[in-house]
Amino acid sequence: MAPAYKLTYFDGCGVAETSRFLINYGGIDFEDVRIKQEDWPQWKPKTPFGVVPLLEHNGKQVGQSIAIARYLAKKVKLAGNDDWEDLEIDAVVNTVQDLYQKLVPIFSEKDESKKKTLIETAQKESLPYYLSRFEERVKKNKGYLALGRLTWADFYFATMSPMFDLLTGGDNLAKYANLKGLREKVNGLPAIKKWIEARPKTPF
Amino acid sequence: MAPAYKLTYFDGCGVAETSRFLINYGGIDFEDVRIKQEDWPQWKPKTPFGVVPLLEHNGKQVGQSIAIARYLAKKVKLAGNDDWEDLEIDAVVNTVQDLYQKLVPIFSEKDESKKKTLIETAQKESLPYYLSRFEERVKKNKGYLALGRLTWADFYFATMSPMFDLLTGGDNLAKYANLKGLREKVNGLPAIKKWIEARPKTPF
């Protein structure tokens, strides 16, 4: 029987890795479809809004990485226990996303000298602004980003923070012991550890 | 007794108006706190991540406009009936947000000639790309963006699409009868109509 879920993305971690972590954590059977960069021009017009990831289930297809991750988090019991708890998780996730959005222009910038300036500004401004606040949260919150327990907000951080490093070329969590510890804790969960060892080795 | 909810934002619609619509739709009692632009420098350092809106309830405070709107949508029964339905709504909301994010640089651009170029590009590229696809969705979906019925995705579109017009200085829905109809349908709901008439008249 074909797996119940199909997740389509590029051949890399990127913004699909949160969902792949959740799928593996919960032992959900899925098809891990990876689009080669050179095939993307053929794929793009067939997607609903020109972007991936896409999740397929029961003949239906939807996009949006965070929406997909939230859905999977509910399936694998890493969501909140009530609406307010879900709000607290969502607020953390969207704040980590805010930081990511601030870094994305580094990726698009083709001029090397402008790229260097963007990286320096990020390292002086947005990265310490957000990371110091996340660090405080984790410190006060029993080692987690929300609700004093493991939630998909931690999975989101563990999978997005390597993107911060990739974009800036630095080890951004080096100064933040609690954040580094949180990422190691997620990466060390038996199912995640196994997935990290088994997943395709890709540049991003 | 003080209202159970306090929503703090600037003195304008902006990204808080989806939540104000939901609150009014559901008849939730709330305190509508509006920060004057000149007072923002005093407010900003007191917010958790330097941004508004913020929702306060039962002595707790959280940020993130879409997270707050999703929470309120559940309270007023404009969310999905199961996890997959919530995913479909979330995917629409985040796709409308993607379009908004593409337009935001127009707001930040101070050089008038560069601003004009950004607006022209948006009107030739991102606006028709997204709006034509939303138009098709609404046409096939009984007049709504998701699930063939009124959801908070429609509230999000009805409150964010005026921002598209504000940023580009144009009536962007003019060519899209179904989208225009959807916005009018939301704005014409009795509680929303009453709120629009009663709310402070602000430039955004």
TrEMBL record, chains A, B:
GST C-terminal domain mapped to chain residues: 82-204
Every GST N-terminal domain range: 3-80
Keyword Ribonucleoprotein: no
Catalytic activity: RX + glutathione = an S-substituted glutathione + a halide anion + H(+)
Family of this protein: Belongs to the GST superfamily. Sigma family.
UniProt subunit comment: Homodimer.
Name assigned to this protein: glutathione transferase
Species annotation: Zophobas morio
